[in-house]
Amino acid sequence: MLEVMPTMSQTLTVNAPLTAADGELLTVKLARERRNKQLKAVALVAPLAIFLLLTFLVPIFMLLGRSVDNPEVVTHLPATSKLIASWDRRALPSEDVFQAMARDLTAAKEDKSVPEVAKRLNMDISGFRSLIQKTARKMPLELAAGESMRDRFIQIDERWGDPDHWHVIAKNAKSWTPYYLYSSLDLRETKAGTPELAPEEERAFISIFGRTLWISFWVTVFCLLLGYPLAYWLANLPARKSNLLMILVLLPFWTSVLVRVASWIVLLQREGLINSALMNLGIIGEPLQLAFNRVGVYIAMVHILLPFVILPAYSVMKSIPPTYMRAAISLGDHPFAAFWKIYFPQTVAGVAAGALLVFIMCIGYYITPALLGSPEEQMVSYYVAFYTNVTINWGMAAALGSLLLIATMTLYAVYSKLVGANKLSLG
Amino acid sequence: MNKNTPRLLALSVAVALAAPAMAKDITVISFGGANKDAQAVAYYQTFEKASGNKITAGDYNGEMAKIKAMVDAKKVSWDVVEVESPELLRGCEEGLFEKINWSKVGNKADFVTPAVSECGVGIFVWSTAMAYNADKIKVAPQGWADFWDVKKFPGKRGLRKGAKYTLEFALQADGVKPADVYKLLATKAGVDRAFKKLDQLKPNIQWWEAGAQPPQFLASGDVVMSSAYNGRIDTAQKEGKNLKVVWTGSVYDVDSWAIPKGSPKLKEAMDFIKHASQPENQAVYSNKIAYGPTNLKAIQKVDPKSATNLPTWPANLKNALALDVNFWVEHGEELEERFNAWAAR
Amino acid sequence: MLPTYASPIERVWFWSFRIFCVMILIFLVSPLLVIVPLSFSADTFLLYPIKSFSLRWYEEFFGNGVWLTSLKNSFIVAPAATLLATTLGTLAAVGLTSSDFPGKSVLMSVLISPMVVPVVIVGVGAYLFFAPLGLSNSYFALILVHTALGVPFVVITVSATLRGFNANLIRASASLGANPVTTYRRIVLPLIAPGVISGALFAFATSFDEVVVTLFLAGPEQTTLPRQMFGGIKENISPAIAAAATVLILFSIALLLTLEWLRGRAEKTRTSAA
Fold this sequence. Notes:
The structure holds three protein chains of three kinds.
Chain A: H1 8-13, H2 26-66, H3 71-76, H4 78-84, H5 95-110, H6 114-124, H7 128-137, H8 149-156, H9 163-171, H10 179-184, E1 187-189, E2 195-197, H11 205-235, H12 239-254, H13 257-268, H14 273-280, H15 294-318, H16 323-330, H17 335-363, H18 367-372, H19 380-389, H20 394-419
Antiparallel strand pairs in A: 1-2
Chain B: H1 5-22, E1 26-31, H2 34-51, E2 55-60, H3 65-72, E3 80-84, H4 85-93, H5 102-105, E4 120-133, H6 144-148, E5 157-160, H7 166-173, H8 181-185, H9 188-201, E6 205-208, H10 213-220, E7 225-229, H11 230-238, E8 243-258, H12 266-276, H13 279-288, E9 292-293, H14 304-307, H15 314-317, E10 321-322, H16 325-344
Parallel strand pairs in B: 1-2, 1-3, 5-6, 5-7, 8-10
Antiparallel strand pairs in B: 3-8, 4-7, 4-8, 4-9
Helix pairs in contact in B: 2-13, 4-16, 7-9
Chain C: H1 8-38, H2 56-63, H3 65-98, H4 104-112, H5 119-130, H6 139-163, H7 168-175, H8 180-208, H9 212-217, H10 225-235, H11 239-273
Helix pairs in contact in C: 1-11, 2-3, 2-11, 3-6, 3-8, 3-10, 6-8, 7-8, 8-11
């Protein structure tokens, strides 16, 4: 607390520097006060900041790191990795490399790390797994006099005589790789190290990213089309009535997403309420496919995200005095024109912010498409989970996750600029 | 009061605190649904009664990620897990599972061959077969070629969302003999052929992921035919649904018990596996759900009415295909990824 | 209201607009209404029409170990996460609003970011981070991550309340001889309490409804209610899910009413204090 407020007479008359009661320079004291206050503020924020750093930021940064991490070959085939760097990448590697490989595989067999290497190499050439396993099982090799390790390897399996296999080892003999990120963009690395488009039957992710944005775009549009009019109506109703109806918006908002998904299945499934109602009314003869396809995903996602448009739009609209519209109309504007020229522009910023938030949440969606969609509705998140749990290909999961995160964060930065994260409010 | 009292007290407190760990409860994870219900009756409850150890039963969908994470972190909380053969083999190679001490389980010769392996003990023989709703289809389909014939049998088809089994079925639908399926699938041309065949059916496919789904889809009329685990169809039949199994072209394999490496209750886990391998208990299981016992001695104990519905019944085995575990270990990842790319299009 | 002199076109517009809005409201509420009756169905499928009624699915819900355990787990994880999130978030919000310091707006954005980062990324990241530490399949990691997800809501609501807070009240209190602790207890706390509580409710709801992170971090022992429902919807749709849903809907009504009551109270205190 300031001890002395400068009085009016002091500020008016004194040219000498202001001092506090204890004789200290006021500016100095003020600066110190401010610094203290800042320190106190930082000290209050620090626990949360540190907590989030440890439980949230560090895990995510480590995940990002995994998208280029490539430790298997370097760690478990160290000697080979070193030697193969100087290989000319045309003919077969030299005898030294084969010797190193034999030593590395022997050591890997000892510490049981063969499967890790085998799995990594199998990603580039399928069948590499068994080649490595089979060869490792024969370790250590005793060479007859005059026999070369190279011949011995080729004798075990002729694929060792194929430079392509060695090329894969050479490519993975460094501790980072663009492999996962390339794969996430339907690219692959050529022998020269440049990216090229993967063969058509293997391409998937560009279209999955495209689909993610496309679904998110339409969900946002539908949310706007339904949310804006409803918010307008609610904002212009008498307070008692609008508060009551607002509960109908807030109740689904507070209800578990899983409850709502289950309900939509009840409504939309083949023998669900909507189909049986339509059939009883004679509108359709055959049940419509409403669930487990795009329609179902749209309906459920719009339902879940609609409040996120309604609530900010409502609070913006509440703050617009109705007199503006009345003034415009009384000055001769048609009500629609008045709405378009006077009312609408005042709501754009708030509503756009809500829409952007919906879009941001949409692109990371997982549960709804997973439960209500077919494979053609699965978005990027689904594949992140798929690679994590099912194929245990954490590099791929990390690469897809990184791209998704970059997209989200870019939009979030725009959002923060537009709204200011500190002005975010929750209805 | 003697002076030892405080120490005794401390000791008893320590014992009391340690008690939960000493009760030797084990966690058994299996594939859920009807399978788990049958296991509960045949194995869990009887084991609890026989040994006094409680079982925490959980279920999962066969994801190895959780097991790998536990083993890597050396903090294993699952003691016995049901796994499919390719995962068992791969996990065994990668050191995810404990080696089985067969002398503690029983005589290897008492078991069907695929049930005996380094890291696992076979639980039951299952089959993924074609099933159809006999209320909706009057003429019985004969094999996978009929499954693909949407003119003769209009309506949606259910298939498991994954490359495994699906590619085998597609090739058989294309006229490949069961014996040649894996030879062909090992070549790029064979895989292309399978996907091309799948392309034909794609607009009519409704995918399933969990074993409980196909009987539901069939019962609700969402699909007219589906690939399905035969045991789930059998359970639905017992509930009065008119579902039928077509054994021609079915793919069979065993599921096994395995112990994640580093389980702190190795002994109890082995006891449980031994208990679950007893012919009496396996027969109870097979009466409850139509999966074949792995213990040869259990086969005579199965109720004759149930026996004809088991995948191990000779007539059912005749035109069936054994899952090639090594093939799926080798090509699984690549094919699953290609399948995913294909399904997502 | 429609003026009496409105033209026919205006009338049509007015009424069709109203009908449109009412339909949207029906769209919003109908799923909640549809699922409740099914929980009383005696059938084994989630299908209408309901032929006979029974309480068997509630017996299943409250009698079956799986559902009850998951409910219990939810009531372990959510309150713990709420407590942590509310404490950390309130402190941070007080710090953020009390003074300006360099990098404040960036920091604010970071503190809010758990709200926008796709949950799958949070889940996978946490899983790959905590699993090597032996903390996957533990309540501990689950609570920590749920806390992180709930924190933004606390920061936002408490900051919003604090911004509306009139600092002169503190000065007035001090000038009337109250020491800082008394001031905090008697003046500040009652005024920001509604913000804190509604932030806590948001944090609670976030954790209580969270399924994706739980999917990655929880083992069968930590299965929460949403996780159990997720598995149920995916694998075995039975009316037990409808029973669980009904319980959750009742719960969300309670949450909503508390929140509305708080909002009313906050407005009253603020206007009377101003």
